[in-house]
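Consider a concrete sample entry:
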Amino acid sequence: MDSGMTKEQIISLIASSAIVENIVSHIIKKPIDDFYQDLVQDVYKLLLEKDDTLIQNLWRTNSYRFWLARVLCNQIKSDRSTFYTNYRKPRMQCQETLEDPYTTSET
């Protein structure tokens, strides 16, 4: 692993190798659908927002996969994560509304 790489080069390699997508698929135990693709995009955004030194150190020490897995587990399983707030909670509310027999019209 080249420790002289920039943060952007590292993220580009992670993206081209579909590492985030593979970790998400492993966690949810199924292929990624559009719902989880939003999570993947959020994680790439998070990577871009992180300090250059952090990303370079994770890459240089080969601990980036563990760090990504931890971030993704926290996002998927927490009811306080941005993924929950922005995606899961609204989806659950929408599904509840669709399943609620009192919200359907009987005309």
About this structure: The longest helix spans residues 82-99. Helices lie at 7-16, 19-28, 34-49, 52-60, 64-77, 82-99.
